[in-house]
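User: I'm putting together notes for a lab meeting next week and I want to include a structural view of one of the chains we've been expressing. I don't have a solved structure, so I'd like a prediction I can at least talk through. The sequence is below, exactly as it appears in our construct file.
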Amino acid sequence: MAGSHAGIIPACLVSLLCLAVASPASGVTGERAADRALDRALENLVRLPEGPPGAIAVIQRGGKRNVHTAGVANVETGAPLRAGDHMRIASVSKAFSGALALAMVDQGVLSLEDTIGELLPDLPPTWHPMTLRQLLQHTSGMPDYTQAPGFADALADSPEAAPPPAALLDYAAGVPLSFPPGTGYKYSNSENIAVAMMVEAVTGASYEHAVRVKVAAPLDLRRTGMPQGILIPDPFIHGYLWDQGIAQDYSQWFPPLDGGVAWGGWAWASGGMVSTPADLNRFARGYASGRLFGPGVQQEQTQFLDGGESDPPGPGNNAAGLGVFRYRTRCGTVVGHTGSIPAGYTQFAASTPNGRRSATFTITIQFTDEILPALRRAEARAVCAALAGR
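Assistant: Thanks for the context. Below is the predicted structure for the 390-residue chain, given as structure tokens.
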């Protein structure tokens, strides 16, 4: 017995040593293969009929960050896509209002059980039972103001001058609830308008100021915020809309309110923010890892509702938390948010829960049903690239 063990042990050691030597190389090979697959997915997207003129993904594995691009940032000039250029982040703005609200819950300024009736009593009485928790998870039943009668006409009549945030919710005031609060799930743009108004009610300061102080500054997001003056500061990645086979530049379609007030136009806290691919990557890592609030609040945030999809749905199987979504893919799980806006952008920003690996993904057109399958496949490739070599 002793002699047979003596023969086995060296072989085991050799095998383990070989595995230890081979694993880093195998990991690097896996990363390269995942990166190439992502590059192909980006190229396939921009080649689609009426696909995006440009696509950019920022992939970070630990301290190593790679930028992948296809197409151009500006159809007229052929300028390349760059991670430091501004862009509209659409409904990923909701993750910022979620981050801000949860940071204030962590500090005891807000509670997840605070209601609209307590903080915003001027809103419709049928909305009064809705809690901050429900608003953040899209389980409040609040009707979507962007789908309400009269909204589309008002936007078409005055795209350059939006009403103040409370007036945006007026469009939904007479619409029946989607369901009694807390009894269902429906993604609604109205909810994050209400969340931001709750923040203003308890702080007495503007929502924009609170985002700067409690989200952008702690995460060192220097090119992120609600725009003032021209909509998107230079330099920026242009966003497009196809019109009779021509890619029309819609980057500046949502100017701010008259007087330069930073409401972010008709979207405000629901989709009006501007950032960069690099800043969005930094935000996704900090938000997912709980840098803005403690573990108790993070545990509340990550009580996910299976089947709760963001808009557009992200890669893999979606589930809704508080101001964040979980995306389970064949390569692993990440948390984050998606978004799209008619002014020419579709976004995806996600990270592993520990914040060590992340993927942000931007195309320069609002998604359509025709390109959504290819978009979700490409986003899944971005997740696989971020998680490769673990």
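A couple of points you could mention at the meeting. The chain has one domain: 31-387. Confidence is low (pLDDT under 50) at residues 1-22, 255-263.

User: Perfect, that's what I needed.
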